[in-house]
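Posting this for the archive.
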Amino acid sequence: MSWTRRFPAVPAALLAALLALLSLLVAAPAASAHEERPVEFPDGTGSVPVYRTGEPDLIVCKTDRPAFERRISAFPDALKQRNLALYERCEKNGFRDLQAAVDAVDRPGMNIAILPGLYEEEPSLPAPTGECASLKAPNSSLGYQILTYEQQVACRHNQNLVAILGKTDLQIEGTGASRQDVVIDAKYQKLNAIRADKADGIYFRNFTAQRTTFNSLYVLAADGFVIDDVLTRWNDEYGFLTFASDHGLYKNCESYGNGDSGIYPGSASDINEDRGYDVPRYSIEITGCRSHHNMVGYSGTAGDSVWVHDNEFDQNMGGASMDSAFPGHPGLPQNHAFFERNLIHDNNADYYRHVADGTCAKPPVERGYEQGVVCPQISMPPGTGIITAGGNWNLYENNWVYGHQRAGFFLSAVPAFIRGEEELSKQTDTSHHNRYAGNILGKDKSGASRPNGMDVWWDGQGRGNCWQQGPDGSTPGTLPQCGERRGAVSGASARLAGEPVKLAQLLVCADYNVQARKLPAGCDWYGSRGLQRVETQLALAVAAVLLLVGGLLWWRRLRASRLATVAALLGLAGLALDVAGSTMGLIGTFVPALALLCLGLWWTGTGLALRPTRPWLARLTLLLGALTLLDAFDKAVLMVPWIPLSPAWIRSLVAVFWILWAVIAAARPGGTPARPAGPGADPAGDRVPVPAGPAPTRSAEGEAGAGAVAAAGPGTGPGTGSGTGSGTGPGTGTGTGTGTGTGTGTGTATGPERGAADGGRP
């Protein structure tokens, strides 16, 4: 049982303090992903629709017969003859636009055939008029109105080129030889090319939808849908968007040129909530698809219970992502995606440059989507295979993941306040129990070497996460290992927060806004390199402070100590390695842990050298050395179990106090370099220094005696006694008092000898 379950009040208290600290550093970035009306999941009583053969009930075609015949001229003969027969029928009683055919559907179970051609749906293109032009509805952060279902029915073409509302068991199929023979084109004048809303049992097959200001094909609140051999492309946001749906199947699809993702099963029905790895069924299956040249190939905000297998995601900025980062999505936090046997490779595109140079500020029709421009809509780490930003119980098994400049797998947690939930108990509800096992990393299907920059990037937060043995480069350098059985983990950890430097990087990089053309400075996701990166800047700043303070302390107090000098040299090497280890090329290697090892030895040696003269500062220094060595062990050998925060958090806090104390100790006047301790060493340490002066000498009046003289008036005497005096002369003096014998007296004398003060022995 993890410590978070043994002591449930401790995580909340620690988390409250941590979030209070973070709130001083950064505000949560504004969400700007898909926003929709409040919607509930289907009841799950539906099923995946089955493809129906046979003659269509309704036919859609254009009236230009010569153009039609040219389109089908290269078809196989049987397919050509079928299309000619359908065209004859369509000329007599068919429809010229898909929307007209959809409007004619009057019962469940009907089929619509679309003959080869370009369908721009001219009757649907004009801007809304009358009441539809002045609908009262909230605006999304992207500017479009969030309409109710009733408003969609009343004003079908405010946002949609083709609106399929409330039709059930409808099948729409292109009759061409390939999916590009039938093209439905919104010409960037509508939010969606095709919207199927509350259309249970919808089946789409063999056509292309393109050029929208949001989605090509949008399925909302459906219990049962199939997307079969459909192409979507050149959209501001998504190619395929399915939302709050169940019993769904994507197969043999393709998508490219989209500003968010090609395939987006957002808020898939959360049928496995509160289950572990025992999953009876998945709500959506995706297979045989290819998604390429998008911001990300696959995306799933609240992509719950999705089975993704035997697909290819390549040439995007990122291959696939799951997240819990945006509010308004039912089913958060994301859980139970299962990726297996997918080909995820070479996702290294750089599309943020189109935001920086102003291309994405132009109207969509002028941006050049058809020539390869993509306008990324959200922040994400390019050069990454699979990204999980706040997800639980996800399985990534037996995939090929290779050729990524940054990382094969990327896992980070997302606090619940990012998605608008303030309850403390939810702030650490991601990322847990994600399993990465049996994947082929850094090699293609032929076995050729295609390494990733590193195989794993993890912020360190969460419990129950595990990876297969032997990743080629990772941060941290040691990872919990997956056992043969799902749920079996060795070296498990349970952390409330990720590493502080990684958290700083994520916060900086999240501050992205495509509308404002705002590219965060310091983040290498957007092109920062070398000293521009926030991680390297932090490493340099820390190195500069420690070099200054540590060097001053060594020079003022410790330069006579061989131990301290050797330790200082180790510290210097550690600081240099720490800066080097913060660079992209070395972050996934042994260098960061080696830097911590050297720094830990520096503080340990310095603490030992300080013990004779500065015992309390020595204790703090030794504590800092132990924490640093523990941090090195945590990152390179075994993540320390049972602790709520990594040693880096505690080490950083202690280092602040050490720096202040070391500055004070080095700046105090009168300090001398430490020498080896001897019999006369002062065990108390930290004494007030005694000003140097001439050594005291004997005086006649100060000869040993224990008596006291009490007198008043001038006089001289040979008596013995103790007293205080100063003066010159060979042993005579003047003083006050009379009498002989033992006593105390005060006198002054002149001469070459100086009397001893306070009647001390000469």
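The chain is about 25% helix and 25% strand. The two ends are 75 Å apart (CA to CA).
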